[in-house]
Write a structure and sequence with these properties.
9% strand; 143 residues; 3 strands; globular; three-stranded antiparallel sheet; mainly alpha; 72% helix
Length: 143
C-alpha cells in the first residue's frame, strides 16, 4: 500500500470512529429526549439553534444548515413544531420572500426543560465512549 493509500485508510478509519461515536451519542439522546420531553434529537437541535440567535429567529435556510437537513425536511420539521406551538414563522420585513422561524415561549420552556436531559446524556455517552478503546482518543480530543 502506497503513502496516499495509507492516508486514505487513516482518514477512513477516523471517519468510521467519528460515525460510531456520533451513533452512540445520538441513539442515547434520542431515547432519553423522547422519554423525558417528547422531543427528537433533530427537534432539540432546531430549538437549541434558534435559542442561540439574537432575536430568537433564523431564516429557514440557516436553520436547515444548523440541523443538517434538506430544505424540504426542514420545512416539514418546522411545520410539525409550529403545529405543537413551539415555533412560529414570520415574514422577513426587508425581503418579502424570506421567512424567519422563531422560537415561541412554549418552545423556550420545552428547550429549558430538555437541556438538562441532553447535557447529562451527552456527558454519560462520552464517558461510556471513553471506555471503548477505538473511541477513547476521539473523546479526549473533543474535551
Amino acid at each position: 500500500m502506497g503513502i496516499s493509500n495509507d492516508a486514505v485508510e487513516i482518514r477512513a478509519q477516523g471517519w468510521r470512529r467519528l460515525a460510531a461515536l456520533h451513533g452512540l451519542i445520538e441513539t442515547a439522546l434520542e431515547k432519553e429526549l423522547q422519554t423525558a420531553c417528547k422531543l427528537s434529537v433533530v427537534e432539540f437541535t432546531v430549538l437549541d439553534a434558534l435559542s442561540r440567535q439574537d432575536g430568537w429567529h433564523m431564516r429557514m435556510q440557516q436553520l436547515a444548515r444548523a440541523a443538517a437537513l434538506s430544505s424540504s425536511a426542514t420545512t416539514r420539521l418546522v411545520t410539525r413544531l409550529e403545529d405543537r406551538g413551539l415555533l412560529t414563522r414570520v415574514l422577513c420585513a426587508d425581503d418579502r420572500r424570506g421567512i424567519y422561524t422563531g422560537l415561541t415561549p412554549a418552545g423556550q420552556a420545552l428547550l429549558a426543560a430538555a437541556r438538562p436531559t441532553h447535557d447529562w446524556v451527552l456527558e454519560a455517552s462520552l464517558t461510556q465512549a471513553e471506555r471503548i478503546p477505538e473511541l477513547e482518543s476521539l473523546v479526549k480530543a473533543l474535551t
